[in-house]
Amino acid sequence: MIGRVGDCLKEGLPFCIYRKPNQSQITAVFQLEDALHSVVDFSEKGFVFAPFQFENGAVLLKPDEIFVTQMENSEHSPFGEIQLSEIGRNDHLELIKKGIEEINTGRLSKVVLSRKLEAETKLSPPEIFTQLLQHYPNAFCYLFHHPKIGTWCGATPETLMTIQNREIKTMSLAATLPFVEGEVPQWKEKELEEQQMVSDYIRERLTGLMESLDIEEAKSVRAGNLWHLKSRINGKMLPKTSVNKIVSLLHPTPAVCGIPTQKAKEFILKHENYRRTYYTGFLGELNLNQATETSLYVNLRCMELKGQTASIYVGGGITKASDPEREWVETQNKSKTILHIL
Ligand SMILES: C=C(O[C@@H]1C=C(C(=O)O)C=C[C@H]1O)C(=O)O
């Protein structure tokens, strides 16, 4: 299957190859022509790749051929230390300060601010994907290609939603600390509050569309070299509730945008020093196996590949309690998820 993926990259044919969190099954969806199709109302069947600015349209890969295989377990060596570049530090610190100023005016309570960094790699996209699979077993790992969109890959810890029949599972994921072997993360008020804001937002958005909704207590979860706080959210949709409605209400969550959503989004578009495109968008299966089964993941810990250059995207949630220097270090730590692989 990996060989076929290499051929598609050479021939410019669209595909996505992926593995869901904690599973050994790898799936590849191939579209046999290079047309750019779009999602209209989420009743379609295929693989969706949506940008942060969802209003710009989400790409739909038509599932002309689907292949499934089991992952081979191979030995992988632990990561060594990597040298991080300080390029972009001042711009990012300025951006964070602007975000905090905006929060202090009372117009925003949270905003997620991000940046892009570049690295060179000698690995091919399929080799990078194979490395991601081996190193990040509890992430959604993928490699996506469309000749009219580009080549993206990543290992994301965040589920936007999975739906089977009317049962919906989502999560509230926020707050970051570095993983240290043998130590339990010590969360402070700032982080607990930041994660609670995401849970409250999801509850508010979904109430009225659900027969039931249960938000679990936040727990520490590991994502590579990092810890996050995560609450699992389970619900049952009312019969009249559509996937389209849920997606438009949840995306972009305050885990990747902010509160209130529209004002945070305007701030991001005005002040970030680049365009996010597909970073903090979402991707995944749409009615692929069964007509009522969907699983979508938030596009985090990801990169865009162009020749030997990888553009890596990283961000973090800013609240009134944020410290610019610590936020910079957090994006540096997040970049390691990808840099370790390259
Ligand atoms: C925005 C990112 O991650 C999000 C922001 C987090 C934070 O602010 O601590 C944690 C997990 C994600 O919800 C990213 O990885 O780029």
From TrEMBL:
Keywords: Isomerase. SUPFAM superfamilies: ADC synthase. InterPro entries: ADC_synthase, Chorismate_C, IsoChor_synthase. Its EC number is 5.4.4.2. It catalyses: chorismate = isochorismate. Coiled coil: none annotated. Residues 90-334 form the Chorismate-utilising enzyme C-terminal domain. Belongs to the isochorismate synthase family. This is isochorismate synthase. It comes from Flagellimonas alvinocaridis.
